Structure formats: structure tokens, C-alpha cells
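Morning F.,

Quick status update on the modeling queue. The single chain you submitted on Monday has been processed. Sequence for confirmation:
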Amino acid sequence: MTDMALETQIATRHDLLKSKSLKRFRTGDTIFRNLTRGAAVLVLVLLGGVIVSLIHGSLPAFHAFGFSFLTTQSWNPVTEVFGAAAPIYGTLVTSLIALLIAVPVGIGIAIFLTELCPMALRRPIGVAIELLAGIPSIIYGIWGLFVFAPFMQEYIQPALIGSLGAIPGIGTLFAGPPYGIGTLTAGLILAIMVLPFVTAISRDVFETVPAVLKESAYGLGCTTWEVVRNIVIPYTRVGVIGGVMLGLGRALGETMAVTFVIGNAHRISGSILAPGTTISATIANEFTEAVGDIYTSSLIALGLILFVITFIVLAAARLMLMRLDAKAGR
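C-alpha cells below.
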């Protein structure tokens, strides 16, 4: 065999091996692409199935009560007259109270851990915060009912009523007797439950800020507050907002902890000290006792409303992020 023929044979064999390798890689990429596409489609199918089931199950309630189902607070299983206004109000108010407390505290803790805390304390404090997220909600509910609610009734609520109850305007929010349980108590419990999510995510995104940016700011004479306000927060705002939205989702859908401490009263009160209810608490309390198509359909309609509220909140957050990116010129 001549040298030319040998070289030709080697080249042919090399091309054959290369072709087989490319074919194997192409097959692997095709399988991987189809698997990932299938996973994405599966999520959409499941989401669509949930939406269709909720809409189908809630149709009898909306046919019976119409738009008034959203605007009335009457909830009487005996006469089969139902309205979702009280659970919607309670869900929004308790979530708002939770965010008003948890977001500034959580972001403040994250700033302390990343910018000010001594290295020896960062890990213990971070682990302690993360452990709060691992506590089951039923434990929060039991603790809230037997420990926190009596504390609120004896110390916090009387102080709020005495100091703020007589102020025109905001005094309505703190009127009434100190029950201990109520909307404010539920909001505070939710704030404790939301806090570790906001703190952990904010801390993680704060740590992604390049050190050179902060060092440059310090080199120009900026204070720690100026570095946080002008460097850290703008650089990580997308992640921080994501953490806030995650916490809001937890607050909107929380069931057991709220059920223990909110009072489960189907009425709207101007005072946040009064008992109330939420969508999740109403469904958890009454679904097993629902008798009749209208009663069951009304509870399913509450689930659909909660789904819509969550979707609107997430869509609004996404729109806000798009506007921030546009303003930044991205």
C-alpha cells in the first residue's frame, strides 16, 4: 500500500469518526432541547388546567350572584348568599401590613450583613434568618394564637388604641376593643414569615455587586449610606424586587398561620384591630363543610380571585421592572 493510499485511508477514517461524533452530539442536543421544551410546555399545560378548572368550578357562583359577588361581604351558608368582598379585603390588607414591615426590615438586615456586620457574625445571623423560612406555618399559627395574640391583647393593642385611636383620620384604624387576634396580628405574623425570604434574596443579590464599584465609591469619599443608595440598590434592584414579589406571594397565599390569628369573621371593618378573614383562610375553614353546588362554587371562585390577584401583582411587578430598565437606557 502506497503512502498516498494510506493517507487517504486515514483521512477517510478520521472523517468517519468525526461524522459519528457530530451525529452523536447533534442527537444529544436534540434530545436535550426536546426535554427542556417539554418541561416548559408541561408547566403551561398544568397552569392552563388549573385556570380552566377554577373557571369551570366558579361559574355557578358568578351566574348566581354576578358582579355583586365581588362587592358584597355577606357570607351566609344557610341562605346560600355569598360575597367575596371581606376575604379579598382581608387578603390585601394583611399582605400590605406584612410588606410594610418585612421589606424595610429585611433589606436593612441584608445591608447590615453585607456591608456593616463583622465577619464572625455574618454566618450565624444569616443562618438564623434562613431558619425562620424553614419553620412550618402551623407552628407560626400556634405560636401566634397562644403567645403572640395574648401579648398583643395585653400590651400592644391597648397602647395603639390609647395613643392613636383618638387621632382624627388614622384613629379609625385603631378603634375598638383589644381582641388580641385580628387583621393586624395576622399581618405581623405574615411579616415574620415573609422576612427571611426578603432578607435572604436581598443579601444574595447584594453580594453580587462587584467590589470594584463599591471600592471606587469609597475612594471618592462616599459614605456607606451613599454607596448603598447609589451603587448597591440600583445595581441589584431587579433581584430585590424579585425577593419582595416572592414574599408577597407567600403572604397572599398563606393559610394556616393566618387562620389561627385573624379571627375568621366575614366582615369588613375600618379597624385593623378587628377580626377579619382572608381568601385562603376561608377556603381552608369551610371547604370540607361546603354542602351544595353554590357553596362549593363560591369557595372555588375565591380561589380563582386569589389566582387573578397574584397574576395581577406579578404582571405589575414585571411592568415596573421593564420601565426601570427603559429609564436606565437598557
